[in-house]
Structure formats: structure tokens, C-alpha cells
Amino acid sequence: MATLLRSLLAARWRTGLWRNPDFLKLWGSLTVTHFGGQVTFLALPLTAALMLDASPFEVGVLTAMGAAPFPIFGLFAGVLVDRARKLPVIVATDVGRGIALLAIPLCAWFGVLTMPVLYVVNFYVGFASVIGWPAYQVFMTERVGRENLVEANAKIGVADSAAQLVGPGVAGALIQWLTAPFAILVDASSFFLSAWMVRGIPPRASDEPRARPRSVGREIREGLGVVWHNRTLRALVWSIGLWQVFRHAFVAIVVLFGARELGFSAGQVGMLFMTAGLGSLMAANVTERLNARFGMGPTMLGGMAGTGVAWLVIAASWGPHWLAGICFGTGLFLLDLAAMIFFINYLSLRQAVTPDALLGRVTATMICLTVSVAPLGGLAGGWVAEHLGLRGAMTLVGAGALLLAPFVTWLSPLANMRELPGPHEPALTESLAEETTA
């Protein structure tokens, strides 16, 4: 009987990538860090707003500091990822982020916590993410294979959904119980646990660096060249770059909007953010079906437009506490549903069209270029909130994203893309002379 039950459970759950032990470890580590990240997402701006009495613009600067490393270091990170074995990079950046986040509760304990401390910590966490996230994506692509990318990213979406479903509620309770700075200990611990989980993944031949040692400038130009000469990647760069401006403006003001404009407590904000996890969970389960019915490109464009609608719904939160809570929660649900549908496809598309030898550089280059203007979004969100109010800033964010979708439809090839394309090999001219002059 026990044998029968085990076989039935295996047939039901141990399918596809769930049978891949390396993917399971990577999936588990990302689930842990996503859960910890939910705590910091709420605790960091609440620490600034409630403990340090920061203005909306100062919170906008804090958001911008987290994104600033991407344009500064992003292109160099791609070269590093292609030159190095990926797993040690993943472990090192996880440990580094954990150590950096520990500085916040320590400074709070000794009574020396200030906004500059938060700025520095958020900048360093962003710096480690610039290197660690491309390394993770390339390593995952090598371990699961291109043919399994949509499945892998959908399962990662489930991990993110689970974290968003449970994490915000737990985060809100921890913030009220421990106070915001000390709740960040949970996120620091999650990075240490993540590093421990993936450290033992056995090596493979595919882990060896793909890039041949040459000048850093030449390798950066190769990554940029692949993006520039691939119409799909080029369109994704500028469209997602513009969208990131709106997203970071939203991130800079959403917690303040809930706490100050609508009067929600930290626990209530956390509970409402749990609805976002429901949206992510639904997206992870419907994306492949939407792709099959409408095509990959139209589904992505619909997801982008959906984020604008969601932000407008959040901006419309008004009235009695219960009514404002329903509107706020509905907007968060729609936001993560739409954004996750878009990004599951975007990650799969970017990884699928990139040649193996350039995966690290192109991944980091795309991240760098799409997030390069994101700090401006954080600063703009804080500035507009100070001059037009938090609700006015949120309304502008939603309207901007909603108008962006038809613009992207007109200027990009996404509207006609029905399924995942194959790798686009760059037309590189290499010679022995070029190799020896590096």
C-alpha cells in the first residue's frame, strides 16, 4: 500500500523539472530569498518613514539607491559572470547581501541608524544583485536546458507567488512585533540559508566559463552588440526600461500611500500585500495557457497594459477603511497577475534567443540597460508625491504605464510573436590577430 501511495504521489507531483535535483535546490533557495525579500520590501520604507520620519523624496532616494548599481556596474557584471564559474558567484553574493542587511538592526540596536545608513545598505544589496541575479539565471538555464525555460520560470513564479502570499502578512506581524529594523533580520537570514542550500550542487562541464579571456571592453561590446542587432532584445530594452521608471516610482510611494494616505498599520499593509501573491500564483498557472491561445507576444503586451490598470485601481483607493482596503488589495492582485504574466515570458524569451557563450553578458547587459533609468523613477516618484501628493503620483504612474503598452505594440515585434524563438547567433568577425591583441 505504501509503495502504491509513493508511486501515485510521484506520478502526480514529481513531474518535469521537479525531478531535477539541481533545479529543486535553486528553486528552494530562490523561494527562501523571495520570502525574506517581502519583509525588507515593507520594513525598509517603514523604517525610513516611521522610525526616521523620512519625507517622500527621501524614500524615493532610498529606492533609487537600490537601483543605482545596475547602470553603474551592470555591463561589467556580465563579463564577470561569463568569465567565472556561476555557483561560487551566487553563494558569495547571497552571503554579501546577508551581511549588509545585518547592519540595519545592528545600527538600530546601538541607536545610530540614519538615512545614510539605509542608503548605503540598499546600494550594496543592489550591487550584489547586479552580479548575483545574472549568475543565477545563467546557471539555471545551463542546468534545465532551453527547452524547459518556460516551465522553469513558471515554477519560479510559483515560488515568488508563495512568498508573496505568505510573506507580507508575516512581515507585517514581525514589523509590529519586532519593529521594522529588526524584522530585516529575517531577510538577512534568508540569504545565508540560500547560500547554504545551493553550495552543494555538484559541478558539471557546463559550469566552466564560456568567455575566453580578452579585453573587458571587447566583451562588453559583444554583449551590447547581441542586444543591438537582435530586434526583439532591442525592443525589450527600451520598453522595459520605460516601464521600470513607473515601477520604481510606484515602489517609492506605495508603502507610504498605504500607511499615510489610507491610514493602514504595518500589519494591515502586510495583509493587503498578500493579495499580490494570489495574483502571482494565478499568473504562474495561466501563462502557458494564455500563450497557447493568444500567442506569447500579445500575452506579454496584455500583461504590460494590465500593470497600468492595476496602478490606477490602487490610486482610486478611497472611502471607509474597509472599502479602501478592498480597492488597494484588488489593485495589488491585478498588478502581480499582470506583471508576472509579462515577466515569465520576458525571462524565457531573453534566455531563449541568446547564444550560450554570451548568456552571462547578454543577461547582465539587458538587466543593466532596462534598469538604468529606474533610479530616476524612484526620485521622480518621491518628488511628485511631495508636490502633487501620494495619490496624484500613483495616478500618474498608472496612466503612464497604460499609455506605454500601445506604444510598445506599435514599435516592437511582440504583437506578431506567437511562440518562443530559438537562439540568435551574432555575426562576429574574429581572427587570431584579434585574439592575441587582447
State the CATH superfamily name: MFS general substrate transporter like domains
> Remind me, CATH topology?
Growth Hormone, Chain: A
Helix proportion: over 70%
CATH architecture classification: Up-down Bundle
Tally of helical runs: 17
Number of strands: 0
Write the layout of secondary structure elements.
Elements: H1 2-13, H2 21-51, H3 56-67, H4 69-83, H5 86-109, H6 115-144, H7 149-178, H8 180-198, H9 216-229, H10 231-261, H11 266-294, H12 296-315, H13 321-352, H14 359-371, H15 374-388, H16 390-411, H17 432-436
Verbal overview:
- With 438 residues, this protein is mainly alpha-helical.
- It has one domain (22-200, 215-426): MFS general substrate transporter like domains (Growth Hormone, Chain: A, Up-down Bundle).
- Helix 2 runs antiparallel to helix 8, helix 3 runs antiparallel to helix 15 (374-388) and helix 9 (216-229) crosses helix 10.
- Helix content is 81%, strand content 0%.
- Residues 1-13 and 423-438 have low confidence and may be disordered.
Features:
0% strand; disordered N terminus; disordered C terminus; Growth Hormone, Chain: A; 438 residues; mainly alpha
